[in-house]
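(Protein data)
===
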Amino acid sequence: MFKRFIPLLLLAAFSQGGSAQIVHTEITDNAADKTTEKATVRVEQITEGHDTIWAIAFLGADEILFTERGGGIGKVSLQSGQVSKLQATPEVLAEGQGGLLDVAVPPDYTAGDWVYFTYVKDQGGQGVTVLAQAKIAAGKLVQWRDLLVSDSASKKRIHFGSRIAFDGKGHLFFTVGDRGVRPSAQDLSNHNGSVIRLNLDGSIPKDNPFLDKSGALPGIWSYGHRNPQGIAYDAVNKRLWVIEHGPRGGDEINLVLPGRNYGWPEISYGKEYWGPVDVADDTHRDGMEQPHKVYIPSIAPSSLLLYQGRAFPAWRGDLFAGALRLTHINRVSVSAAGELVGEERLLEDFGERIRDLIEGPDGLIYFSTDSGKIFRMSPASDQN
């Protein structure tokens, strides 16, 4: 059975933007700068007592697969709450921000198909982000295979990325952070600070933008990212969204297009951690893309969900991000033209670092936390 029932009244600060390409989100106590509307949701705890649950994915209508950053992989039944841990898990470098990271299943997944993971591998004392696939059989992982050991080696234990998204056409995208080596995000000869696009078997698609560019790695789809920890593909509108950590301020939501440069560290809206000094000399530069949304101050985004369910009809087509620093779920309204036109902050008093968000087969929103819990959010009127 579920261990906790939490009725919540959410006071949502909803700031409307016009058609501006960039929406700067400022936290303010000035009531004149925001309007207030009330919404109620129901939040149920499904499981607890785990390591940081970095990612969650549905294996079927009743079963959630989850990764723990320390290296564990588990399954939890929604009906019973029973948890089982899988055997034959990979060895991971679980230091700093590294460890076992994302897990994702393709849209047409059925039992016995490939499941995809990202994790951090020790490579001669340096950490690298790796994309892998495996199958689940008899309570363990089988046929584990590294599809791409990214060229991202660094002794720094930060900015590994890494999330996975599918386009439903035989391709996947996954993200790699700049690994704490800022200039490398502008260097196409490594994978740092990039979105990578591969076929589901790990091969390189023949229409990737840098396939024939000398000195560039052919898997790169876009570059100039800092630490993208959320990615979502909108199959209806053919849009790829990425959310990434800025430094002190300057978190970004980007609409990612093939071959484009998203500017880090040459342009940024953030400041240095050590003082009120701009990270970059510019916020705009020719040949570099502008973000669709900038967060000032940072929310520390951890994941990204494009909601398409029926349980929350008013939210269909909107983006949801988990927030680590400001411990809430961040909803961003998306217009038909792909503009980000409003923001709502849910569960601001929940007190949990929200690590991952997914939509369930039932159209409800499921999320995990750094405290090792998984929750389900439904409309307050929903009695299921």
The CA atoms of residues 129 and 150 lie 6 Å apart. Confidence is low (pLDDT under 50) at residues 1-38. The chain is about 0% helix and 45% strand. Residues 4-49+161-379 form a domain with the Neuraminidase fold (CATH 2.120.10.30).
